[in-house]
Amino acid sequence: MKPDQSQSDRPEVDDLFGDIFGLNARALKTLYKLVLHPRTVFAAARVKNWDGRRFTPSVRLALSIFTLQALFSFFISGEDSSLYTGFMEGWTQAEESTFNSLEEREAAGRSILAQFSASLPFTMLLSHAFMAVLVRVWGAGTNLTERVRLYMLAIAPGLSLALIAIICAPILPDYPQMLSAAMLLAVAALDFSTAWRGGVVAGGRLRRVLKGAVLALCSWLASSIGLVLSFAVATLTFLISGA
């Protein structure tokens, strides 16, 4: 249940803006607590200044992880990487009439892949922030800022696992589809577990399980939307710059 607190202690919109800027050294502690004792961190998210700034604000934490994901994705997307080869195989199947030569298609693909990596943190944060506003599994009376904070906390461990997978991608020669599917399931399971153990509020155990599953599904949907948006932004940027 929600901790007792006065209205003056509850976070408001200006506190949400404060959450976004200035990552600090408490990020690893926050992730550690989210994995082992999530309820403590979720309780702090419902209080102004994160209960004495004991933890890194979740929006800031999520944006930092998204940025690291994009950074490592860019650096490992060399011509021998699975990310590069998988993307280019699909890209070079574009109609030949669009480009004068295969070299032009490949150059366009490399440009779009670079733009994709650059825009990914922002499109992912935007799509997840939008989903955070919509998802209401935190109990009656939870305000907008609390919903965003709690949602970002719930997905942070899963985002961290995805970051580890991206970093380890170069040592996985083929990066098979089965492994990708297993990683998606693992991230969804972490989203569900963190929300269920930490912040989901419901009248019974079954309802808490259902709400945790709803959050995990919405997180997967938001990530999918973020990827599509990032590719759309990258393609549009390429088209505008080449016009």
Summarize the structure in words.
With 243 residues, this protein is mainly alpha-helical. The protein has one domain (58-242). 73% of the residues lie in helices and 0% in strands. The protein has 10 helices and no strands. It has helices at residues 13-20, 27-36, 38-45, 49-53, 58-75, 82-91, 102-134, 144-168, 177-198, 205-242. Helix 2 (27-36) crosses helix 3 (38-45), helix 7 (102-134) packs antiparallel against helix 8 and helix 7 (102-134) runs antiparallel to helix 10. It is elongated.
Key descriptive features of the protein:
10 helices; about 75% helix; about 240 residues; mainly alpha; single chain
Largest sheet: none
Q: How many E-type strands?
A: 0
Secondary structural class: mainly alpha
The fraction of residues in strands falls at: under 5%
**From N to C, what is the helix and strand string?**
HHHHHHHHHH
Arithmetic mean of pLDDT? 81
Count of discrete structural domains: 1
Number of helices: 10
Give the low-pLDDT segments.
none
Rg from alpha-carbon coordinates: 20 Å
The geometry reads as elongated
Helix content estimate: over 70%
Distance linking N and C termini: 56 Å
